[in-house]
Amino acid sequence: MNISRLPLAAALAAMTGWLPVAAQEAPKPDIPADLLEDPHVREELAINEFTAPSIARIFESLEALAPLPTLKFQRETPANMPMNRADLAVELGFLIADGFLVVQAGELGKVESLAADLTRYGKGLGAGERVNRHAASLLESARKQDVVQLKKELAATQKDVELELVSLRDADLAHLISLGGWIRALQVSSSAVDTQFSPERARHIMREDIADYYSGVISGLEPQISERKTFLDMVEILSELRTEMVLDGQPATHPQITEITSQAANLAKLALQREESP
């Protein structure tokens, strides 16, 4: 190798063995195939680490459990948004998931307040213009009682915010939006199975691959996020969930689902715990 022909930074790297931080980072874990919105998205973006699981696909995988107990988990969105962008992203994921729950339950009268909250959070993440367009379409679709279009707009909201974060090179937040959506879905769906248990219904909850995926994602976030106590605690719970979800060819048991429901509730509590202001 002719070091004299390399740019200065590259020459220093070649001589010292130093690599840029990006090159040292462990690759993001592969997304479970059924949660990838579009198999060509990664190729189109040309940067795999920015692609996150689709919240819409997460809910599609749980359709066999419908109706989910939305009333039991109704949540008032706080009037004040979090100051920390990581917390903003997680809560936006919860909001998008709540949108799917509202639509599935046919509670379309709640779409207006949901659209307003999505707009606030989108603006907080720097994707206000993109989210505004979807908020207007959500209201129009709710007026028309168009459930199919409502789901499409919710899915498009996540994707458009993700694209905005790609342009800002803020991949971590895209993953946190998806994480928030999955935690909310798991919280509600595990409770539904615990209330009305059957091994067949339980099978839809036992997704150790998803628990593994999000555990790896959190561990790979920038240290300012991944080393926060709440996120370290979430990784520990995800590890326990992953173990609990492995079936080894046996049917799931009711005690397993009860434990997963409890852990999912703990996970949701941690996810919504905001970083304290300095």
Outline the structure in words.
The chain is mostly helical. Helix content is 63%, strand content 0%. It is built from 14 helices and no strands. Helix 6 runs antiparallel to helix 7, helix 7 (128-143) runs antiparallel to helix 8 and helix 11 (208-219) packs antiparallel against helix 13 (229-245). The longest helix has 25 residues, at 171-195. The radius of gyration is 20 Å and the shape is globular. It starts with 7 loop residues before the first helix and ends in a 7-residue tail after the last helix. The relative contact order is 0.13.
Features:
278 residues; mainly alpha; 63% helix; 0% strand; globular
Structural class: mainly alpha
Element order: H for helix, E for strand:
HHHHHHHHHHHHHH
Shape summary? globular
Number of helical segments with 4 or more residues? 14
Q: Can you give the helix content as a percent range? A: 55-70%
Into which percentage range does the β-strand content fall? under 5%
Low-confidence parts: 1-25, 39-48
Number of strands: 0
How far apart are the first and last residues' alpha carbons, in Å? 50 Å
Mean pLDDT: 83
Q: What is the radius of gyration?
A: 20 Å
Quick gist of this model?
The protein is mostly helical.
Would you spell out the secondary-structure blueprint of this structure?
Layout: H1 8-16, H2 21-24, H3 41-45, H4 55-60, H5 85-104, H6 111-124, H7 128-143, H8 147-167, H9 171-195, H10 199-203, H11 208-219, H12 223-226, H13 229-245, H14 254-271
Helix pairs in contact: 5-6, 5-8, 5-9, 6-7, 7-8, 8-9, 9-14, 11-13, 13-14
